[in-house]
Amino acid sequence: MQKLSSYLLVIFMIMFWAFRAVLTLMSQMGKDIMGVVPMNTTIEIILLFAVLLCLILVVKRKVIGAALYLALYGFYFGEDVTSKVRLITEGQKLSSSEMASALFSLIGVILAVAVLIELLLDKNRKVHPVDKKTDWFYKNEQFDRKMDDRADKNNYRTL
Question: Fewer CB atoms inside 10 A, N or C side of the chain?
Answer without folding.
Answer: C
